[in-house]
Amino acid sequence: MTFIASTLSGSKPEQYAQLLEQVHGLLHGERDRIANAANLSALVYHALPALNWVGFYLYDGTELVVGPFQGLPACVRIPLDKGVCGAAASTRQTQRVADVHAFPGHIACDSASRSEVVVPLIAADGSLIGVFDLDSPEPDRFDADDQRGLEAIAQAFVESLG
Predict the structure, then answer these.
(1) How far is CA 60 from the centre of its chain?
(2) What was the pLDDT predicted at 83?
């Protein structure tokens, strides 16, 4: 398989639509969650500006465990009652944080991170798969367009698992 990422253009919603097309092409026909998480992390990390970490934390039945990612080494295990990732997993709602230093219980895996968005990954049966986590060194990097675009990408990942 040869995959060629194309440069995104247009408005932010148009860019996310283009990125989602690339995601569908990348994930098509593959069901392995590690392979898909690895490729998706790389694609998003290189496609979107001002990111310093993109990756997955996968739920092991007790806590979130780091999965495939792009960026500096990360925290390995995150309890569901800690940090932005834990909040997204436990509430099953996307967490968009303009200033991670103002978030109670924030876990500083990379001290350069200033803002974060974390999308929970929920299977069709309602079970928790994990979270899709993006960090930026810029404060208030993520807006509602980013959230919608990243939620669509996360949904494509969940759907790829079958």
Answers:
(1) 17
(2) 95
